[in-house]
Amino acid sequence: MEKLENYKKEKLTIDLVWANIFGILILIPIALIFGLPFYFIWQPQGDFKQFLQNAEYQFSGFGFLWFLGVLILGIILHELIHGITWAKFAKKGFKSIKFGILWKMLTPYCHCKEALNVKQYIIGAITPAIIMGIIPSIIAIMIGNVALLIFGMFFTMAAGGDFLIINLIRKEKSSALVQDHPTEAGCYIYRKIE
User: Which residue from 76, 144, 162, 175 lies 20 to 30 Å from 188 (Cα-Cα)?
Assistant: First the structure.
């Protein structure tokens, strides 16, 4: 990697309050993309009441503590997937990865201390949404499992902050480098000085 002295540095961050609101707002398109196909494929002859009863039956074996456990483990796994993916691209591997919680917003995070190229950073940012959100949602549509659908939709929604950060850097040149901001939701972009 080239020395960062050959680059101009700019801080790009997102507001965590907005990120949490955005995460809730994207539930609407997520529900349309995954929920509607699921409903139309698996509804029993157009009877919505019967559909809800079937969904309730699928959930009847799960208690609140089980749900809370899956939620907590899922959040940990989400951050771990960021770390594993970025570590694959980082020169120092997992030594460049740090995990923690922004206590002010009760937001867990994974931080890569090394600057990565834009493509590598985006791959690391989007991977948890794909593995924990999109793939489980598609499988749920294929097999008709409501619990898996809700899991997938929730973890697609949970990647809302990741989508916002990707949006900040998606138009950057491939020669740019991206480094996580150590204390805020966002990153530093390093643009090569021409």
Answer: 76
